[in-house]
Amino acid sequence: MPFDFKKEYREFYLPPRKPTLVEVPAMNFIAVRGKGDPNDEEGEYKQAMGLLYGVAFTLKMSKKGDHRIEGYFDYVVPPLEGFWWQEGVQGMDYAHKEKLCWISLIRLPDFVTRGDFDWAVEEASRKKKADFSCFSKAEFLTYAEGLCVQCMHIGSYDDEPVTVEAMHEFAEQNGYAIDITDSRFHHEIYLSDARRTAPEKLKTVIRLPVRRV
User: Fold this and answer.
1) 78 pLDDT band (50/70/90 cuts)?
2) With b meaning 16 or more CB within 10 Å and e meaning fewer, what string describes 26-39?
3) What span, in angstroms and rounded, lies between the C-alpha atoms of 121 and 110?
4) What is the C-alpha separation between 96 and 27, in angstroms, rounded?
5) Which of 50, 78, 145, 199 gives the lowest tally of CB atoms within 10 Å of its CB?
6) CA 73, CA 136: separation in Å to the nearest integer?
7) Per-residue pLDDT tens for 142-158?
């Protein structure tokens, strides 16, 4: 049975629908940075998806090729994640998605080294017959998120402000303040395939960094 990060680390991927606190340790990711509306079919976000999944599945399927990764075990590719912000804006302005800045992410198993990652970027570029400079936008990112408040949001992405407001209230009531900075972000983890799931049934983990007041 392939290792499933969502099931093995439920505290990070399957939180309750009410806000809770969580301490998130350092993790390694495939990351692609960009700007613009994620719904733009010709935008950077759609292109980033191809890069992320190209590298992610190259690593997963390395077991069938000549590149051997030390410590490899079979696993389910973790869900898509995203850090989101808007320059000069506190919080998120959902009415102006064209101004969004983002880092799209897929978690890497701990056994994947930077050398393995570099191999996967080059291999994915070769298999897709793409310009290497395109896949080179993917980076190996280590990120320690620290103390956060998180919550499972069920429903449309456009309905997230209600859940975010509840998270702000929970933090304040428990002696914390939301701590979004240049290095700590509004974080979302996408557990549903938006192409195949009705908007009202979408499951998204929302995570906001906090600090003690």
Assistant:
1) very high
2) ebbbbbbebebebe
3) 17
4) 30
5) 199
6) 26
7) 999 999 999 999 999 99
Query: Residues 1-20: pLDDT tens digits?
Result: 999 999 999 999 999 999 99
Count the neighbouring beta carbons within 10 Å of the beta carbon of residue 124: 23
DSSP the chain: --B-HHHHTHHHHS--SS-EEEEEEEEEEEEEEEES-TT-TTSHHHHHHHHHHHHHHHHHGGGGSS-PPTT---BPPPPEEEEEE-TT-SS--TT-GGG-EEEEEEE--TT--HHHHHHHHHHHHHHHT--HHHHTT-EEEEEEEEEEEEEEEES-GGGHHHHHHHHHHHHHHTTEEE---SSS-EEEEE-S-TTTS-GGG-EEEEEEEEEE-
Q: What is the pLDDT of residues 119-133, one digit of tens each?
A: 999 999 988 776 666
